[in-house]
Amino acid sequence: MATDPDPLAGAELTYLLGMAFQVLHAEFVERVAAAGGGDVRPVHAMLFQMLRRGGATSTELAARLGITKQATGQILDQLEDRGYVVRSGHPDGGRRRLVELTDAARAYLDMAGGVLHELEAQVTADLGAAELAGVRVDLARIVRHFAGADIPPLRPLW
Fold first, then answer.
1. How many domains does the chain have?
2. pLDDT attached to residue 66
3. Residues 113, 153, 118, CA angle at the centre, nearest 5°?
4. What CATH number corresponds to the domain at position 96?
5. Residue 75 is part of which domain span?
6. Which end of the chain is more exposed for a tag (fewer CB within 10 A), N or C?
7. Which residues contact 109 (CB under 8 A, 6 or more apart)?
8. Residues 6 or more apart in contact with residue 47 via CB below 8 angstroms
9. In-domain check, residue 15
10. In sequence order, which residues have a C-beta less than 8 Å from that of residue 73 and are 6 or more positions away?
11. pLDDT by residue (tens digit) across 76-134?
């Protein structure tokens, strides 16, 4: 009895990398939504990551996200309305405003982090710790080969 060849065997590297990210990300989004975090889009979560160690201005966030200041302002308006961020006067004064996370955003990050750890544990169980460690090393080498020492920011999926 002949078996069908694996459709992923011989696939282009960029296709496999993109598909791996896509299926892991879709599973993550599904699990986060099931845990009550369905109102947070990927760009929101990316912004939360940028703010988790301290506040930033909308101009700084726009540069890190690679989007316009106007688009960043709209995203911040949505997140402020949902209670995930607050904007206050900047310590340096002037017209600048400091964007910071609320407890609700920090709770989301904790929950989402737990989901990520569950997914990674599942992949580790499937591949084995040593093989997954090798995958990490190889992926890091690919990033450094093309990006050099200046590792680029990961852009959100819209």
1. 1
2. 84
3. 20
4. 1.10.10.10
5. 37-115
6. N
7. 45, 48, 49, 52, 101
8. 61, 65, 75, 79, 85
9. no
10. 58
11. 999 999 999 999 988 887 888 999 999 999 999 999 999 999 999 999 999 999 999 99
